[in-house]
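Q: I have 137 residues here and want to know how they pack in 3D. Can you give me a structure?
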Amino acid sequence: MSDAAVLAAPAPGLERRWRINHLLLVLNFAAVAAALLLWWTATSLGWVAPIFLPSPGDVLHAGRITLASGDLVTDILVSARRVFLGFALAAAVGTNRTAAATATTEESAAQGEAHPTQAGGHGTKFYGHPCFFLPAW
């Protein structure tokens, strides 16, 4: 078999994977278009008051105004800072609680004691946080 024939032959399943990927891409665009169409319809027919859901045209107009004034970039940076600081704080608190719960569980196990959430046999297991219980199937 020549090298050209080997290079020209598609890999098995490649065409199927290509069709599935393109179908998913079309479905994603269709879902976004349907959501925008529903938004436009709901605002233009008065199903939702403009104070609760402004029309897409009003949103684009306000976006152009804030972008031109320079406030949009500032607002995005302030919001991103809040998100990242909140995530960092939640990660620090979650890591600290998980570490403390793991240390407590390991100390109890070293002393031969059952963990309080497992001692009663209520069908739940403790997974690092007092509010996070899962059924023990």
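Q: Anything worth noting?
A: The chain is about 70% helix and 5% strand. The mean pLDDT is 78.
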